[in-house]
Amino acid sequence: MADIANKALPSVVTIEAQSGSGEGGTGTGFVYDEQGHIMTNNHVVASAAQGGKLSATFSNGKKYDAEVVGRAEGYDVAVIKLKDKPADLKPIPLADSDKVAVGDSTIAIGAPFGLSNTVTTGIVSAKNRPVTSSDGGSSKSSYMSALQTDASINPGNSGGPLLDARGAVIGINSAIKPADSGGLGGGGQSGSIGLGFAIPVNQAKNVGQQLIKTGEATYPVIGASVSLADTSDGATISDRAAGGSGAAVEPDGPADKAGLKSGDVIKKLDDMVIDSGPTLIGQIWTHKPGDTVKITYERDGKERTADVVLGARKGDG
């Protein structure tokens, strides 16, 4: 573990974000490539995105100004770039998060409560954990099918790498379950109780590449609005579109073409049980536009299935 930590620490940065009004916070990021791109969470840098200031400090104490390259609020992924990058940047290798197994060892590196270069260890406690999080600010909620770990993660760890036993990134630490709350959060949280959640790196890599290339991410969609109520009996297609105007099922969209209607209750996506709307969204977002998924749903008490070819929505608009 010590060798892995010592090798990774020089490639992890403490990010300080400050808004135009002077408010801000601290988070973590890691070197993504030799061009100076740093991967982190959207909620770490969101406050500095519009006219604010960003800096990244390495474990050797050297501090660099940075700028936002792109943000994806829904995925809670962001890429920033060092303005005057050092010549000896060493990206941390990325693992295949699809091959992660429950019980695998984990190492989290970050700046909990501003304490830079903190290393904690644990295991992968669960996979495909539905997580909805928000920083409590103006950002929209993010939805993920997360890796769960008992490695101690606290506010300030956000955006930092979750490593495997070989020192490769398996996820981006993003949210914790606080002891004093029924919900999950990305910021403004209390301390760790051993329930930390990370965005699988395969998804983060896909999003990060889009942000570097175009500045925004593309989301796979089924073309239907679902209830976001915290239920346990499936994802119900709403009567109206989000915001209350228009049809919940987009005319000639993916769901419409597959025969889905308002009131249908989606129970499974492929082999994954769907207990709520947020779970469905997080699971859809593990795919890419153009993928075909099998949706199992209930209508009038009868179970049916439909193959849906996922559409695309560009940006967080």
From TrEMBL:
Transmembrane segments: none annotated. This is Putative periplasmic serine protease do/HhoA-like protein. It comes from the Bacteria. Gene3D superfamilies: 2.30.42.10, 2.40.10.120. The keyword Protease applies. Keywords: Hydrolase, Protease. GO terms for molecular function: serine-type endopeptidase activity. Residues 231-301 form the PDZ domain. One of its GO terms (biological process) is proteolysis. It holds the Pfam family Trypsin_2.
